[in-house]
Each structure stands twice: as C-alpha cells, then as structure tokens.
Design a protein that fits this description.
This protein is α+β, with helices and mostly antiparallel strands and 752 residues long. Among the domains are: 338-460, Jelly Rolls; 486-635, no CATH class; 649-752, no CATH class. Strand 5 (394-402) and strand 6 (409-418) form a beta hairpin.
C-alpha cells in the first residue's frame, strides 16, 4: 500500500477493499483484525478504513452465534472504534441481516436490541422489519411482539410496521397456535409495565375485523339441540382488567372449540344426508366440516365461517330437532350398560366361543404388573365390550377417550377384585365421536400372571329405517333420478309431507292401500318395531315435539312414562301385525319350499293364511282386529326371526346342501362335532379358512329349524323362535360364496 502512493494516478491506488477481498484471513477474528488496525492506524492514515470495508469483513468474519455480546452491539462498538457512522453501517448491513435471520444466527433479544436502536428511522426500520418478518414463522413473530412489549419498545414507528404484520399472520394461524399465542400473551403480561398493559392488549387486537370474532348467529332450535351454553363473542374490547382479559379470552376460545365440536358431531350426519340427495353446496360443506375435525392447520376464523355456512344451510328445516332424533345424532355419548356381570351364564361357553372366533383378543398381565390396552372406535358407533379371565379375578378399569377439542376421558367401569374368572363382564355405550376404548387390568397384588380375553362388538348407530323408507318413497315420487342441484328448501318441503305421513301412521289413520309402498320397507329391512316407533314417536306435530322431547329422551334411556308408553305400545301392536302381514307370503313360501310340514297336513291356519287377502280399505288402527290370525300364529317371532326366514328362502341352496350332508340326525350331530373340532385345529393359523369355518358353525345353528319337518305350523314357529342371540351380523353368515365353498367342502368330507 505504501508503494501505491508513488503512483500519480489516484484511481490506481490500492484500497483496503482491494486487499481484503483478495486475501484469505485465517486464525484471526474480526475483533483481533480491527484491534491490529488500531494499533497501526498511523501507518494507514492515507488509506481510510471505510464502512464498505467493514461490511465486507463482517460478511466474511461474522461473530459466532454463541458470542457473549450481542452481535449488533459489537457492530456499533466497531463502528465507534473505527470512527465510522453506525447508521451508515446498518444501511448497508441489511442483506447480511436477512441471511442471518434465515439461518437463525440471532436471538430474539438481540434482534429486539437492533430494532430499538434503529426505530427512530422509519425507512430503515421498515426495511429491517420486512427482512425479519419474511424469514421467520408466526410463532417467532409473536415472540418478538411480546419481547418488544416487555421492554416498552413499541413506539409509533414500530407499531406502524409490526402490528399490521402481526394481525395478518395471526389471523391465518391454525386454531391450536391461536390458543398458544393467547396463553403466551397472558404469561407475558406480568413482565410488562402496569402503565403499558392496556396499551399492549389494544395493540394485540388493533385493526382486527371485530366481526370475525363474533360468534355465529344461531336460532333457539339450534341452541336447544346443541345443548351447550352458547359461547359469547370473543371480547377484544374490554382491556381494563388486563390479566383477567387473557384468562377470559382463552376461556372463550375453548368454549368456541367445544361448541363447534358438538355442533359438528350432531349435524355432520344431516349434511351427509343432504349430500346424498344432491343438495347444492352440501358436498363442499361436508368436506369443510371434516376439515375442522381433521386438519390441524384450520384457523379459528375459517372454522367460524364454515359453521356459519352450515347454520345457513340448516335454516330452512323447521323440524330440525325431529330430524336429528331420527338420525340418532343428538346425544354425544351415553352409557347403556356401565358394566355388569352375567350371573346367568358361566365363562366356559363364552370363553370357548371367543377362543374359536377371536383367538387374538388376549391380554397376558404379568405378576405384580398393570397393563393398559387400547382399541380404536370409529365415529357413530354402538359398542358392546366383554371381559373374561381364564384363571383369576382382578381389578378392572374401562375408559373411553373421545377425539376432539377436549380429549375427555369417560370412566365406563371401575371395580376391584371382579370375578371375571366365573362370570362374563359386559358393558355397552354409544358415541357420536370416535376415540379409544381403554382397558386397564391391575394385577399388582397377584403373584401369578393373569390372562384376559376381550370381545368388542361395534356397529353403526341405528337410524330410523321407517323414516328413511318413507322419505325415499316421497323423494322418488317427486324427483326420481333427476335430483341434481336441489335446494335445502326443496328437501324441507318434502320433509313436511313425510312428517305428515308419519303423524298419520302414528295415529293409525292410514289405510293399508296408502301403506302399499311401505310394505317393501317392512319386508326388506330388519326392523325392530319398538325401536322404530320410539324414534318416530318423538313428535306427531311441532307442538307435541317440544312438549314431549325430554320425556321421550328418558324413554330412550329406559325410564318409564306411562301415558306415552301406552301410546307407543298401541302403535307397536298395529305395526307388529303389519310386519307379520308383510312377511306372510315368505313364511308360507319357506314352509312349502323346504317341505317343513307333513304331506297330509291340511291345517286350517295354513289354509286361512293362504287365502288371506288384503282389505286395502282397512285402516292401520283396525288392523289388529282384521288380521288377528297373524298375531295368533306369529306372536313368538321377532323381527330377527322374520329376517332369518327371508334370508333362508333367498339362500335355499345352503339349506339343500346341509340337508344332503345329513348333519342333524343323531349320527349326523356327532359327525358335525367331530368335523368342527378337527377343522378348528387344522385351521387354527389359517385366518381365511378359520373365518369360513366360523360362518359354517354359526349357520349350522341358525338353519336347524329349516332342515327337519315340523309337526305343525305352531311347532315350526316355536322351533324358529327358540333361536336366540340373532343379530344382523349372524344372519349375514348364511349369505355369500365363502359359506357355499365351505358347505361344498364339508359335503365332500361327509361323503368320504
């Protein structure tokens, strides 16, 4: 550099920037470099060390992240040491700053120190804050806001740039982050000067569209159905109470979330039903409702907007409570059986069946240990749980944890020293929201291992088959296949007619002719008359609906109300006769198809049933008298027995094959038991074959009344009625090609 002074052309003189840009500096910190320059600055008087040189050096030799001193304080100190202007330095430093923020070189408190230093210069602060906010997430931005508030550093310039960005980013965060930010603000309030606290709260919500924080408008019918206290608007105005403000704010947010959760549980099935009938906009609405439950990125404002849209879609429906009750979606959770021991039967048969059909449902709890086991439960399920022990009694806790905003635990059963080694423990509940069924076995006091077997039977919550059948009749009558782009008003008008028909049905004012199309519903669906009537009996008019709603809710849960109970029994009697009426032909067909009565049987009842012609002018309330013979003949048969007869006729080839195998004679029963035991052992580790075998075993018991001749019609009915524990899932075992395959294989085995 001294040699360059001899060159007359000043443009050819070497500059510091020329040297340092071409020289690699090793084993020397920038602090040491500047100190060396200061020690020899007299030699460099004619070669000024300017801001651009320092910027270049900082870019190459930036202070380490773990330095004791804030890097920005260090930069100011260096500028003072070198007689440079810190403001000029920071005007050129912003690109390095942006890179440093992106790579997390700086702590929040250090950046806050920089912001405090440059906040008097609007343009410079704006540039730095833009670089900062563009490279951090909303959580970091919120932390910066809280830190600047704590050090009382938010003046007009900071507020101008910070608050709009905070508001824009906060509105777009998901609901969980929104809650977290509110809690952080509450926890930070104690570190903010008392005189500044109200201002801090005002800043947090400044320029917010307050309408977005107003709870959606609901009508009284919605409030009654949701049955939770209606949340208030989020209070972003009353800031005088300071600490209490955030307590209240967080509490209100949680109330919003809980109300939204319950609203979705109740009305999602209704929106799904609207979608199934092509109501305009319902498909997207259903997607959005599911997003509220499943998408963690959903914001509070988005949730509010979707709920408001759903409320608007439901508005045309006048009998909304009645509709929800028919869909069985009003009660979020109810325990049907808390847990009780079955003293009528011991564990042997149950355990044998469980080991055969569900061999993997086993828990081994070591001595002096406790074990917890979870089973996933889907949405809208009725769940039956059973526990049995192979050796010892034990301490049992059964809980259900629902998914949702509160993840609440519901204790279903808790008792010590339960004798499940002698008796089966059963419980039952219904839930709208899915979750985890948790079984906790405490064996800490037992010096021996214990083996627990469990059975979980779950099925979709029942809805009203008669309502859906009646609605479909009317829907097809008016719209048929051309049902695109229907409006909510269209379905609302249709529901008015449907409910009018139901009211007449419950009053017995319909003729059999008017019920002709409904006959197929009674025949095709496995209808439990009493359950159906309870659901239909919610109301026969809007006025009756509101008066009887609570009484009927009690009826559903097993509590008695004599006047309503008598009305229900009367309607059940009418519809039970009509159900027999709908199945008379298939019962006769079954008897004839499988030749179940002696050939010389000329029973008067059979002749009467064959000649039974429907008096279509007969009203429903007169059906008991007009068709008394149906009650006399079939009183012992339940809806499940009628469904069994129908399925047996449809699957007649199964009956014929089982007859051919001759497994119901005295010798045949022995062969069946031997074959069952051998195949159980053979298929123990073969899941598919074991499933087929189980279907065959169940079917063997179900179809016995249809294989051998009965003495009379009454004898046939009596034999069918003796079949117990009939369920839809049991009946399905008779159907399907898998069963036919096993019957064929059994047939072959028997022939051998």
């Amino acid at each position: 550099m001294q040699a360059s002074k001899l060159i007359n052309d000043v443009h050819l003189h070497l500059q510091w920037i020329d040297i340092i840009s071409k020289v690699k500096i090793n084993n020397l910190s920038l602090d040491q470099f500047i100190q060396a320059f200061q020690n020899n600055k007299e030699a460099f008087k004619e070669f000024p060390f300017n801001t651009s040189v320092l910027i270049n050096l900082v870019q190459r030799m930036h202070p380490p992240k773990n330095a004791k001193e804030s890097p920005f304080i260090t930069f100011v100190r260096w500028n003072h040491t070198l007689n440079l202007d810190p403001t000029l330095f920071f005007e050129q430093f912003h690109s390095i700053f942006s890179h440093g923020v992106k790579n997390q070189w700086y702590e929040t408190k250090d950046i806050a120190e920089l912001f405090t230093r440059i906040k008097s210069q609007d343009q410079l602060f704006g540039q730095y804050f833009y670089n900062y906010s563009s490279n951090v997430n909303t959580d970091d931005l919120w932390d910066m806001f809280l830190h600047l508030s704590k050090i009382d550093a938010i003046d007009k310039v900071v507020q101008k740039h910070l608050i709009p960005t905070i508001i824009e980013r906060t509105v777009s965060v998901n609901a969980t982050a929104f809650q977290r930010h509110a809690k952080l603000a509450k926890n930070s309030l104690g570190e903010i000067k008392p005189d500044y606290q109200s201002h801090f709260i005002n800043l947090a919500f400044q320029a917010v569209d307050r309408q977005q924080y107003e709870f959606p408008l609901t009508k009284p019918n919605i409030d009654n159905i949701v049955a939770l206290p209606k949340p208030k608007n989020l209070d972003i105005v009353n800031t005088k109470s300071k600490q209490e403000f955030f307590d209240q704010f967080i509490k209100q947010i949680n109330e919003w979330f809980n109300w939204f959760d319950q609203f979705i549980d109740i009305f999602q099935p209704i929106i799904d039903w609207l979608k199934a009938h092509n109501v305009t906009g319902s498909s997207q609405l259903l997607i959005d409702l599911l997003r509220i439950r499943d998408d963690p990125k959903m914001t509070l404002i988005e949730m509010r907007s979707i709920i408001a849209g759903t409320l608007k879609s439901l508005q045309p429906f006048k009998d909304l409570a009645r509709l929800c009750q028919l869909f069985n979606c009003i009660i979020p959770f109810q325990i049907l059986d808390q847990g009780s021991l079955d003293y009528r039967n011991n564990t042997v048969n149950f355990l044998t069946e469980l080991k055969r059909f569900q061999p993997n449902n086993k828990l081994v709890i070591e001595a002096y240990k406790t074990r917890e086991h979870s089973i996933s439960i889907d949405d809208r399920q009725q769940v039956q749980w059973s526990l049995v022990s192979g050796n010892y009694p034990c301490n049992i806790t059964v809980e259900f944890r629902s998914y949702g905003a509160d993840n609440r635990y519901i204790q279903l059963f808790q008792k010590e020293n339960v004798a499940i080694n002698k008796y089966v423990l059963h419980g039952q509940f219904e839930t709208q929201r899915g979750g985890q069924l948790i079984i906790i076995i405490d064996n800490q006091a037992n010096p021996y291992p214990i083996t627990i077997w469990y059975r979980i039977k779950s099925g979709s919550l029942s809805t009203c088959h008669l309502f859906h059948g009646i609605f479909d009749i009317y829907f097809n009558k008016y719209y048929g296949q051309s049902s695109e782009n229907l409006g909510e008003e269209d379905l609302s008008r249709l529901l008015d007619e449907v409910f009018d028909f139901i009211n007449k049905l419950l009053n017995g004012d319909l003729s059999l002719r008017a019920m002709t199309e409904l006959r197929a519903v009674f025949y095709d669906k496995n209808i439990n008359i009493r359950d159906e009537v309870k659901k239909l009996f919610i109301s026969s008019s809007n006025e009756k609906n509101y008066k009887s709603f609570n009484m009927l809710a009690n009826l559903v849960q097993g509590q008695k109300n004599q006047p309503i109970e008598r009305e229900i029994e009367q309607v059940c009697e009418w519809l039970q006769v009509y159900q027999y009426y709908s199945h008379t032909n298939v019962i006769i067909q079954c008897i004839e198809k499988f030749d179940l009565l002696p050939s010389d049987n000329q029973e008067e009842k059979i002749v009467h049933l064959k000649r039974l012609s429907g008096n279509e002018n007969c009203s429903l309330k007169d059906i008991t008298q007009a068709y008394r013979i149906l009650q006399e003949c079939f009183r012992a048969l339940t809806h499940q027995h009628l469904q069994l007869i129908k399925i047996v006729v449809e699957c007649s080839n199964v009956i014929e094959m089982m007859k051919k195998a001759d497994l119901y004679s005295e010798q045949g029963r022995l062969r069946f038991q031997e074959l069952r035991d051998n195949l159980t052992t053979q298929f123990q580790l073969q899941e598919l074959n074991n499933m087929i075998l189980n279907s065959w075993i169940i079917t063997y018991a179900l179809i016995e009344p249809f294989v051998d001749k009965a003495k009379s019609l009454d004898d046939f009915v009596e034999r069918v009625s003796q079949i117990k524990n009939l369920e839809g899932s049991s009946l399905n075992h008779i159907k399907g090609t898998l069963l036919l395959q096993v019957v064929l294989s059994i047939d072959t085995a028997v022939d051998r």
